[in-house]
UniProtKB/TrEMBL annotation:
Family: Belongs to the UDP-glycosyltransferase family.
Organism: Brassica napus (Rape)
Enzyme Commission identifier(s): 2.4.1.-
PROSITE patterns named in the record: UDPGT
Alphabetical list of SUPFAM superfamilies matching this protein: UDP-Glycosyltransferase/glycogen phosphorylase
Top class in the EC scheme: transferase
Protein name as annotated: Glycosyltransferase
Residue ranges that the Swiss-Prot or TrEMBL entry lists as coiled coil: none
Length: 456
């Protein structure tokens, strides 16, 4: 690596699904020669440290909450978070500017538009980095602009929503905040307000790649200076130009893969295991958990299911024990997802369709069964099924409940159906395009190089 010259600050929204893609970009910027300082807004203050592997400096700044308060309190009291973090960020950048290698740019998550204002006030080059896909951001943009009106009641006069460069979307395809006025008011404000001052950003980056959302990207490029720099998945599973980059941490706190999970997986035939995981936030109802378990058992396939301890009691009595005893299934509280998706035994991925999980599956060539819950997940699922054709989405009843018959039907279709064969071909094509984009000379790699060149 050449000697670090330009210094950039990276400021993720303090939620793991947003932090991970920011860390991945930081690694690539550092390896290309920039000095990177990662700023985490937190109620748990710690001493600054430098990652030995990537030379990334990590600082925490105070987010306005006390150490005993739950991290998600910031969702319920956004103004408290904004006011305190604005002060903390201003103080931090002001101090950094007095050092021998002052920062020249701030890369921030547009979920925190106040960060753009702070950076502009302090004369930094400002880069908005969206960790969500354009396909969700475009919907939020039109809500902010007033060119799409969120219905008062999603049950009255349901219509198809039309957006530039999009297929027609039913209300079930829209992000959950865009279906009905007044649903999730605080989170609605969070996702829509990211566009309140975005026009002031010098550059906009997104965790996607040109060939994945070409029509949407073209439309967005006509509005702003936008560059795609994804997929921001650890290098081991893509181009392998950063061989030490095997997961989303900075290499200083080694978490070894759960060998018992990987050993169990290795004992199964190729493409025979259904992997099930609904992310770190989604909490299915007890009724839906039981229904999902019965569907998996009904298909007769081997399965690996990642279930948090807090959710385990929702499973049917004896379900875990029977699967273990008969050796057709394993329920684990933590699963090394990238290792599992890259394993030959994995046949499909039953997922909530969060963007990070979607990108991981796509990069590793695994077809999907989508069970979206909220936020951008329904829109991701629409593209998975009808645009990219790399999976199938379950059809839910009116209130969102999905029957065991429907879940089982979708799993069988992906694992053994004729459409499933096409899905595998399509996801393999996207896997190749994803690797090309981030490999040396690829579209995303060039965009990262162009940004680095501004400061070296």
């Amino acid at each position: 690596m050449s000697e670090a010259s330009g210094h950039v600050l990276v400021f993720p929204y303090p939620f793991q699904g947003h932090i991970n893609p920011m860390i991945q970009l930081s690694k690539r910027l550092s390896k290309k020669g920039l000095t990177v300082t990662l700023i985490i807004a937190s109620n748990n203050q710690r001493e600054p440290y430098t990652s030995d592997v990537y030379s990334i400096i990590v600082h925490t700044i105070h987010d306005g909450f006390l150490s005993h308060e739950h991290p998600q309190t910031k969702f319920n009291e956004p103004q408290r978070f904004i006011n305190s973090t604005t002060r903390s960020l201003t103080d931090f950048i002001s101090r950094e500017k007095l050092k021998s290698n002052p920062p020249k740019a701030l890369i921030y998550d547009p979920f925190m538009p106040f960060a753009l204002d702070v950076a502009k006030e302090l004369d930094l080059y400002v880069v908005a980095y969206s960790t969500q896909p354009w396909l969700a951001s475009l919907v939020y943009y039109h809500i902010n602009e007033g060119t799409y009106d969120v219905p008062d009641d999603r049950h009255e006069n349901p219509t198809l929503a039309s957006f530039p460069a999009f297929p027609l979307l039913s209300q079930n395809d829209l992000p959950s905040f865009a279906r009905e006025k007044g649903s999730y008011p605080l989170l609605f404000e969070l996702v829509v307000n990211q566009f309140s001052n975005l026009w002031r950003a010098d550059l906009i980056l997104c965790n996607t790649f040109d060939q994945l959302e070409p029509k949407v990207v073209k439309w967005m490029s006509d509005q702003w200076l936008v560059k795609n720099i994804g997929p921001m998945v650890p290098s081991k599973f893509l181009d392998n130009r950063l061989p030490e980059d095997k997961d989303y941490d900075l290499g200083d706190f080694k978490t070894e893969p759960d060998e018992s999970v990987l050993r169990w997986l290795a004992s199964k035939p190729a493409k025979s295991v259904v992997y099930v995981a609904f992310g770190t936030l989604a909490a299915l109802s007890e009724k839906q958990m039981k229904e999902t378990a019965m569907a998996i058992r009904q298909t007769g396939y081997n399965f690996l299911w990642s279930v948090r301890d807090s959710e385990r009691s929702k499973l049917p009595s004896g379900f875990v024990e029977e699967a273990l005893e008969k050796d057709y299934g394993l329920v684990a509280k933590w699963v090394p997802q990238l290792e599992v998706l890259s394993h030959d035994s994995t046949g499909c991925f039953v997922t909530h369709c969060g963007w990070n999980s979607t990108l991981e599956a796509l990069c590793l060539g695994v077809p999907l069964v989508g069970m979206p819950q909220w936020t951008d997940q329904p829109t991701n699922a629409k593209f998975i099924e009808d645009v990219w054709k790399i999976g199938v989405r379950v059809k839910a009843h009116e209130e969102g409940f999905v029957s065991k018959e429907e879940i089982a039907r979708c799993i069988v279709e992906v694992m053994d159906g004729e459409k499933g064969k096409e899905m595998r071909k399509n996801v393999e094509k996207l896997k190749v395009l994803a690797r090309e984009a981030i490999s040396e000379g690829g579209t995303s790699d060039k965009n990262i190089d162009e940004f680095v060149a501004l400061w070296t």
